[in-house]
Every structure is written in structure tokens, then in C-alpha cells.
Design brief:
- The protein is built from 8 helices and 16 strands.
- With about 350 residues, the chain is of the alpha/beta class.
- The protein has a single domain, classed as Glycoside hydrolase/deacetylase (TIM Barrel).
- The strands form 6 sheets. Strands 1, 4, 5, 8, 9 and 14 form a 6-stranded parallel beta sheet that branches.
- The longest helix is centred in the N-terminal third of the chain and has 34 residues.
- The protein is globular.
- The protein binds zinc ion.
- The site of zinc ion has 7 residues, from helix 2.
């Protein structure tokens, strides 16, 4: 390809990135991340393979330095797609996680390191981006509004009814002007979510790509989201951000404003900033955790490049020694002796560290 042709191709590719809809752009960017992370995954599975024998009999022991899956969903709808899960497949995901010993924690639990699940089980976080109707639809009946049993909230609530020990937690990263796409029901839906143990997070005011925004516009995009959410649920603390398209500001001196900033006297502070792809996270108190770059796993079975939910479930079945296993006590952090060095003692929030020899 000559230079001019290459230039034109580059312009076409970058303008396609800019003009395609949010979901397509997220797809392209996350695919790049995915390919990168496949390399990482292959390397780490080699390492795990080498050490497998040593850990074979220790797989049921607590490992609270292990990896935690933070799942990223987008829409729930009738036709399965790269960014859409059908109600049936979403139910299958919950069923599979439950059977394999995963239990729900919220993103706030993750941020605080308050992982309160039974001994021997593993935490999992469910997140939804974009605030679609398929995530939370309400249907009008004679008695008022009820939750559509085929939307994500309806499915989660039904699953919880039949499996109360699974937990009832999920975080919805919404943008404005109409989260969940029923403009008269924003209030009702937000209150329903909070009252039922679910959370609301920041996904920028209108899904802005933060890459090239000015300092003022970054703070406006993130602060205005919090400002709008607080109109509906005044005392609620929005403390995490899912980066639209997984993209941070390009300039080094602006990156810090994804964590903290101010807009119209509204201060925002994100204790966790979530990426689009494609690895499990470490606990908040791990030396490996960067709060401004918490990885998530795509809960999808399409174009996952070996890094989707089912790929990671299989990975943890083969490498149980890498999975976070609870000791059943929220106030202690139990770690195998070889993982003690991974704990950042400044971040354990008063919890006692128990080293298992
Ligand atoms: Zn999004």
C-alpha cells in the first residue's frame, strides 16, 4: 500500500470509529483490548500450568488475593448479538455462575473490600452499561407499574427469589437524558433499584468519548451525570465510573479527572473506574489493582476472542488456584503464603490478614 492509500485507509478507519454508534465503537475498541489480553492470558496459563501440581490439593482453601470477575453486560433483548444477551442466555449465565459457586457482590462491596459471601464461594460482580430498556422495562397494569419479567432486573429478581443465597446485586452505568428509555419512570426505576440492593454508576452525561475533551468538558460530562442522578436519588453516592468506550482522556495531566472533579458545585469522586475488557480484576487491596483501570469481562458468547465469560469460567475450572475463594469472614483476608506479598496493607481497611501456610 503506498503512503497516500495508507493515509486514506487510516482516515476511513478512524472516522468509522467516530461515527458508528456507541456499541459498535465499543466493540472495535474492546476487540483490540481482547487481542492484547489473549496474549496475556496465554502467558498466564503457561505459568499456571507450571505451578499446577503444587496447588492441586489446595484449590478449596481460601484465597482472598485471587481474581474476581466483574462482568460487563449491555442490552437484554429478543435477538442474541455481540452486545445483546437474550433473556434465556442471561438466565443461563446466572444458573451457570450459581452452580459453579459464584455469589453476587456489588461494585460498592468490591470497592470497600467488603466481600461477604459463604466460605468456599467466589464473588462475581454484574454490571450493565448504557441504561437500555432491555435492562429495566416497566409495564403498566391496573395496579400500577410492574417490572417486565424479561428485562434484566426482572430476571435477576426472579432468580433471587428462587436462589436467595446467590444475592441480589448489580450495577447499572447509565447516561442521560433518559436512562432506561422511559422518561416518566426514571424516578420510580432508580428508587426500585436502590431499594432492592442494586446500584447506579456513572457512564458520563451523554456517553461522551473523553479522549479529546478539555478539562472543563471532562468535568461537565462526569459531573453532570452525578448531578442528574442526584435529582432523583438525593442521598445516593455515585462512586464508580464505567468509561464510555473504555476510553480515558489522552493528555496525561487530564487523566486524573476521571477520578475526581467538580461541575456546577457538584463534586464527583470515583473509587473505581471500569474498563471495557477483558480480564478478571484483583481485589481492591491487591498491589496489582489500579483503581483508575479496573478490568471487566464481557458477558457474551459472540466474538469474545477467548476472553468472554465462558472462557474465563473454563479457565478458573482449570486453574482454581487463581480464583478468589472466600474464607467466609468479611473481616479477615485469608491468603496463601505465596500471595501475601500481593496484599497492599494500606488498603485493607482495618481487616485482619491471615496467612495460610
Ligand atoms: Zn457505553
Amino acid at each position: 500500500m503506498n503512503k497516500n492509500l495508507a493515509k486514506i485507509a487510516a482516515i476511513i478507519i478512524s472516522s468509522a470509529l467516530l461515527t458508528s454508534c456507541a456499541i459498535n465503537t465499543e466493540a472495535k475498541i474492546s476487540n483490540q483490548i481482547k487481542q492484547e489480553s489473549s496474549k496475556i492470558q496465554n502467558t498466564s496459563s503457561n505459568i499456571a500450568e507450571d505451578t499446577k501440581d503444587k496447588h492441586e490439593n489446595s484449590s478449596v482453601k481460601p484465597n482472598e488475593a485471587g481474581k474476581i470477575m466483574i462482568l460487563m453486560y449491555h442490552d437484554i433483548g429478543p435477538k442474541e448479538g455481540e452486545w445483546v444477551r437474550t433473556p434465556e442466555n442471561f438466565k443461563k449465565d446466572l444458573e451457570t455462575l450459581y452452580k459453579k459457586g459464584y455469589r453476587l457482590i456489588s461494585i460498592k462491596d468490591y470497592i470497600n473490600g467488603d466481600i461477604n459471601i459463604p466460605k468456599g464461594t467466589s464473588p462475581v460482580v454484574i454490571t450493565f452499561d448504557d441504561g437500555t430498556l432491555g435492562q429495566f422495562n416497566m409495564i403498566k397494569t391496573n395496579e400500577g407499574y410492574t417490572v417486565d419479567p424479561n428485562c434484566a432486573v426482572g430476571i435477576l429478581e426472579d432468580f433471587y427469589k428462587n436462589h436467595p443465597d446467590f444475592g441480589m446485586k448489580a450495577t447499572f452505568y447509565v447516561y442521560y437524558p433518559v436512562p432506561f428509555r422511559q422518561k416518566d419512570l426514571i424516578d420510580l426505576k432508580f428508587k426500585h433499584l436502590i431499594e432492592n440492593g442494586m446500584d447506579i454508576g456513572n457512564h458520563a452525561y451523554n456517553h461522551e468519548n473523553l479522549r479529546n475533551l478539555s478539562l472543563e468538558d471532562i468535568q461537565k460530562a462526569l459531573g453532570k451525570n452525578v448531578y442528574e442522578t442526584k435529582k432523583h436519588i438525593q442521598d445516593y453516592e455515585v462512586d464508580s465510573l464505567a468509561l464510555p468506550y473504555g476510553i480515558k482522556p489522552k493528555l496525561q495531566n487530564l487523566k486524573q479527572y476521571v477520578i475526581k472533579g467538580e461541575y456546577l458545585n457538584i463534586k464527583y469522586e470515583n473509587k473505581a473506574v471500569l474498563l471495557v475488557g477483558s480480564n478478571p480484576a484483583y481485589p481492591i487491596y491487591s498491589i496489582k489493582t489500579k483503581v483508575d483501570a479496573i478490568p471487566r469481562i464481557r458477558a457474551s458468547e459472540m466474538n469474545t476472542y477467548g476472553t468472554g465469560l465462558y472462557d474465563w469460567l473454563e479457565y478458573f475450572d482449570k486453574h482454581p488456584e487463581e480464583r478468589y475463594i472466600s474464607d467466609g469472614n468479611m473481616n479477615t483476608i485469608s491468603v496463601p503464603i505465596n500471595k501475601e506479598k500481593d496484599i497492599n496493607r494500606d488498603k485493607v481497611n482495618g481487616k485482619e490478614i491471615i496467612v495460610i501456610k
